[in-house]
Write a structure and sequence with these properties.
about 10% strand; 12 helices; disordered C terminus; alpha/beta; two-stranded antiparallel ribbon; five-stranded mixed beta sheet
Length: about 300
């Protein structure tokens, strides 16, 4: 129900998470890394150097210009100079995301996972890889993978939301945080009989969720009762602001306040020990953490009143 099943979007098979483009422009056997530099494996000399932090990419103009509006403008601005170097230090996702985007431009297969999809989606937006330049460009394909694969999976939604921590404000502006929060909230509020236990109660790994038929032999009986707090540990790995977003969405969807309060207490119990100054009793978590602490205190107070009546 919520694992990464095979999806076909616009003729593209997303089952194995592999993207490629049919018009590479420059024939190549792939990319080669030499220290902090990436080179295209081809006999055609590089005519463009892209620098991202300490990492450099020795590339060719045509494959990038044919798919990226930003690269088009950047190269145009270099037309009257002898320089062929472009710095993209503010590219979301950093050199890892740009490497995947560049490979896509060259027609090299790109393996999409829950770990890299948010950075690549943000990088595609930054590079303006739109449908105006080429049908089935990177924005469209990463958006399709997010919508049809990631958001159908409990674990992938959490992994992607976790990966958004280093992608502000891009992940917020592209609604990745909101959509993942809504996906997690919807699944947390769903009938627990549909929960696949292999995806819960464990720290999400940096891989896409395995398919159900690969794990069904080790799965518990469908008659095994699922505790209502099955989702607490998974959401507790999220950064505080993303946790608040998920909890807010869960509250809006009508989950019992006792469970919402228990989830907040679970989160606070996990993270508060490291957020308290030793010997002082004061908190170091900032306004968002104080918000969670205040909410937790309110839940405890309400529970205490209930016990005394």
């Amino acid at each position: 129900m919520w694992d990464s099943e095979t999806e076909s979007v616009g003729g593209q098979d997303y089952g194995n998470g592999v993207l490629s483009t049919s018009k590479p422009g420059v024939k190549t056997d792939g990319f080669e890394q030499r220290g902090q530099s990436w080179h295209v494996a081809t006999d055609i000399p590089s005519d463009l150097l892209v620098q991202i932090g300490d990492v450099s990419f020795h590339l060719h103009k045509y494959p990038l210009l044919s798919r990226s509006g930003k690269m088009n403008r950047a190269v145009y601005e270099l037309r009257d100079t002898e320089l062929n170097k472009i710095a993209l230090d503010d590219l979301p996702g950093g050199p890892e995301a740009f490497e995947l985007a560049a490979k896509f431009c060259y027609g090299i297969a790109v393996d999409l996972t829950a770990t890299n999809i948010s950075g690549l989606r943000c990088a595609a937006e930054y590079l303006e890889m739109t449908e105006d330049l080429e049908e089935g460009n990177l924005i469209f394909k990463t958006e399709a993978f997010l919508s049809y694969v990631v958001l159908s999976s409990w674990r992938d939604s959490i992994v992607v939301l976790k990966s958004c921590e280093k992608l502000s404000p891009w992940a917020e502006n592209l609604q990745i945080v909101r959509r993942c929060s809504e996906s997690i909230a919807w699944k947390a509020c769903a009938n627990p009989k549909g929960i696949r236990w292999q995806y819960t109660g464990k720290h999400p790994r940096s891989v896409s969720s395995p398919k159900w038929n690969e794990m069904k032999e080790s799965s518990p009986s469908r008659n095994t009762p699922v505790p209502p707090d099955w989702w607490f540990e998974d959401v507790s790995i999220l950064r505080i602001d993303h946790f608040v977003r998920v909890i807010t969405a869960i509250k809006v969807k009508g989950m019992r306040y006792e469970l919402v309060g228990a989830a907040i207490m679970h989160y606070a119990g996990k993270w508060l020990p490291g957020l308290v100054k030793e010997g002082s009793g004061s908190y170091q978590g900032g306004p968002l953490m104080r918000e969670v602490i205040a909410a937790t205190a309110m839940v405890v107070a309400v529970a205490g009143k209930g016990d005394s009546t």
